């Protein structure tokens, strides 16, 4: 009974946190997209090397876990940021943010942290670049793509195409706005409109948020510590097993790093430790459920494969 109450309490906390975070981030990103639309298009609107760098840096500056990064990606995709650029943020935000870097330095030292950053940064940028060669329609759910085209449609590599009933543009629907020399004024930003739009997005993802919080409450803090300690004599195999186990847990970085330090004190090799940190921080079962509202199943499988590849290759490299 006590255990059930603890799970229920954890569920309420996680669900409230995810809900507030999703709504607040949606409002913030919608405001930024309206107020600084040109700047966003300039810096993140194209699948270019500099866009990946900027998205990566933005992720490094935001102390989000893998679950908290999903609402940002959702909002970015809504304002037409390329999926490959969004992936640079989705991977860097939970893996190279100020919280995890600080804790790595305090726990394992500066040398370990430098290796961590130097290895992860080019891998994330390379993966994001390679994703630009895949058609987004093959990766995103049809329902999500349809919701992104509610107000306007846009073809890849072209200017936005607006449908308007302005009397000065009569019979010119579906014509790129750039064809008209109209003095554009800064749009009036209504907080009420932003909130209503955010709640509409929240309603679409409510089931996924509920399921993510429910599963997260049961998994929260659970780590098979004795099992991981038993892998210390099988370093190479242990790296693979640890990555697969950690990716489906739900452990916050402020918990997983002290746990990793404890495992190291029991003689668990660094390769297994870094595999645990990257896989555990970069992905978790609740975040996969949230991504289910945006990505197709094959995209989620691809995301899991990417995190596993980074975690395992990092572990193998540090073991050499």
What can you see in these coordinates?
The protein has a two-stranded antiparallel sheet with strand order 1-2. It is built from 15 helices and 2 strands. The protein is 70% helix and 1% strand. The model is unreliable at 151-173 and 177-185 (pLDDT under 50). Helix 6 packs antiparallel against helix 7 (110-131) and helix 11 runs parallel beside helix 13. The chain is an all-alpha fold.
Mean pLDDT: 78
Instruction: Kindly state the percentage of residues in helix.
Output: 55-70%
Count helical runs: 15
Q: Could you spell the SSE succession in H and E letters? A: HHHHHHHHEEHHHHHHH
Q: List low-confidence stretches.
A: 151-173, 177-185
Structural class of the secondary structure composition? Answer: mainly alpha
Largest sheet: 2 strands, antiparallel
Query: Widest sheet: strand order?
Result: 1-2
Q: Work out the radius of gyration.
A: 21 Å
What coarse outline follows from CA principal-axis ratios?
globular
End-to-end Cα distance, whole Å, is 48 Å
- Number of extended strands: 2
Beta-strand content? under 5%
């Amino acid at each position: 009974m006590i255990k059930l109450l603890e799970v229920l309490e954890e569920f309420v906390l996680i669900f409230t946190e995810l809900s507030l975070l999703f709504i607040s981030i949606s409002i913030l990103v919608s405001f930024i997209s309206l107020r600084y639309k040109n700047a966003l298009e300039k810096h993140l609107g194209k699948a270019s090397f500099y866009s990946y760098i900027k998205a990566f840096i933005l992720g490094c500056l935001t102390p989000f876990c893998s679950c908290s990064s999903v609402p940002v990606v959702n909002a970015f995709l809504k304002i037409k940021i390329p999926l490959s650029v969004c992936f640079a943020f989705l991977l860097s935000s939970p893996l190279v943010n100020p919280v995890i870097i600080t804790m790595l330095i305090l726990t394992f030292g500066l040398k370990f942290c430098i290796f961590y950053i130097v290895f992860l940064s080019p891998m994330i940028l390379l993966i994001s670049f390679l994703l630009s060669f895949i058609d987004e329609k093959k990766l995103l759910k049809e329902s999500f793509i349809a919701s992104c085209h509610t107000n306007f449609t846009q073809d890849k590599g072209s200017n936005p195409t607006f449908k308007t009933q302005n009397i000065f543009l009569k019979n010119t629907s579906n014509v790129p706005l750039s064809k008209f020399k109209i003095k554009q004024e800064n749009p009036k930003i209504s907080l009420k409109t932003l909130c209503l739009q955010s709640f509409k997005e929240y309603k679409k993802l409510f089931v996924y948020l509920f399921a993510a919080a429910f599963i997260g409450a049961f998994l929260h803090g659970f780590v098979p510590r004795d099992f991981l300690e038993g892998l210390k004599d099988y370093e190479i195999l242990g790296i693979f097993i640890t990555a697969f186990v950690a990716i489906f847990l739900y452990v916050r970085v402020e918990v997983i790093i002290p746990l990793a330090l404890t495992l190291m004190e029991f003689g668990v090799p660094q390769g297994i430790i870094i595999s645990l940190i990257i896989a555990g921080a970069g992905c978790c079962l609740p975040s996969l459920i949230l991504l289910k509202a945006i990505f197709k199943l094959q995209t989620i499988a691809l995301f899991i494969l990417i995190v596993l590849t980074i975690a395992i290759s990092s572990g193998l490299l540090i073991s050499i």
